[in-house]
Amino acid sequence: MPSPAFHAPQTVESAVALLAADPSARPLGGGTDLIVQMRSGRYTPGAVIDLKRIEGMIGIRRDGDAFVIGAATPCTALKRDDALDRAWPGVVEAANLIGSVQVRNRATIAGNLCNASPAADSVPALVAAGATCAIAGPSGLREAPVEAIPVAPGKTSLAPGEFLVELRLPARPKGGGDAYLRSTPRTEMDIAVVGVGISLVLDGEGVCIAARVALGAVGPTVMLVKEAGKALIGSKLQDDALAALSRAVQAAAHPIDDRRGTVAYRKAMVGVLARRAALIAAARTGAKA
After folding, report:
1. Strand partners, 177
2. What residue ranges in the chain does DSSP mark as E strands?
3. CA distance to 30, 64, 75, 78, 165, per residue, from 105 (Å)
4. pLDDT mean over 153-165
5. Distance of alpha carbon 126 from alpha carbon 134, whole angstroms
6. What percent of the chain has pLDDT over 70?
7. Which residue blocks in 137-262 are alpha helix, DSSP H?
């Protein structure tokens, strides 16, 4: 493995300057992807920029009823935050499916996002929740929806010198609930063959008034499927609405055959998981059926 320069800046501005000065430099949050990629020779950075000493990069804070998660916050910290777990259980569950306990003690959802794997577990849940990113770079701070970050397997929309500072989850709406489900050959430490994240809002009569559906591992990036969300709106999640949801996600899915699963399996399973995730999310709303 190469021995790059190591920097641990204490400000966002210093980190931006270091990253902008060396196009090969890589930011380090948890490092569970980066170190493996360096050992395999995929990356040979001239410098590694450790972000953990920058104030606010580790931790979860409230912004009104919304949640702000520092980009270097380990996945296990999410489930220790009771308020976050109550508001967005699907996001917390998805983050804690990544790797093993030991991996999650260092791994971050920001890193899971920026690794840009189509099979990332936390990303469909974040997209379904309507999460956004605060991104620092040479031009200052900007905000972008989570779904705008991955653009291809292993590639992101981040410009040279940019890195994620934090992820922001909106306030849980009244009557809101979310869920994430995946299919894997093994229960633990496996890569998703199919992943589905859903968040929805039910009114007091149990009618769906808003829904977001995101898919993982069935295309080159995690995708937000607007037609799938529309299939649920106006319904009480009856069988016909769930069938329409299944058809919508199957139509949007463009999986590949690989050693983990076939196109046919993934097409079938994405419809099954979408139905199940929608019902779990609905049960978490507390709205009257």
Report:
1. 200
2. 5-7, 26-28, 47-50, 60-63, 66-70, 132-137, 140-145, 150-152, 155-156, 163-169, 176-183, 194-202, 208-216, 223-224
3. 9, 27, 6, 10, 19
4. 96
5. 14
6. 97
7. 226-232, 239-252
What's the pLDDT score for residue 26?
A: 94
Q: How many CB atoms lie within 10 A of CB 174?
A: 12
- Give the pLDDT mean for 165-183: 97
pLDDT class of 2 with cuts at 50, 70, 90 = low
- Which pLDDT score, from 0 to 100, does residue 188 have? 67
Stated pTM of the model: 0.95
Instruction: Extract the tokens encoding 146.
Output: 């989570």
Give the other-Cβ count within 10 Å of 257's Cβ: 11
Closest by CA position to 212, among listed 198, 232, 202: 198
Distance from C-alpha of 15 to C-alpha of 12, rounded to nearest angstrom? 5
**Is the confidence at residue 172, as pLDDT, over 90?**
yes
β-pair partners for 180: 197
Task: Answer yes or no: do 247 and 274 share one domain.
Answer: yes
Rounded to 10 deg, the angle between the 263-283 and 239-252 helix axes is 140
Domain that holds residue 226: 176-283
Average pLDDT over residues 128-157: 97
| Residue that is written with structure tokens 């229960």 in the block | 187
Judged by average pLDDT, the poorest of 27-41, 81-95, 220-234, 245-259 is 27-41
Rounded to an integer, what distance in angstroms lies between the CA atom of residue 200 and that of residue 26?
36
| 244 and 223 share one domain | yes
Q: Please indicate, yes or no, if residue 80 is contained in any of the structural domains.
A: yes
Locate 172 and state its tokens.
């849980």
Q: Which of 172, 191, 218 is the last residue of a domain?
A: 172
Q: Is the dihedral of CA 79, 85, 89, 91 positive or negative?
A: negative
Gyration radius (Cα) of the chain, Å: 19
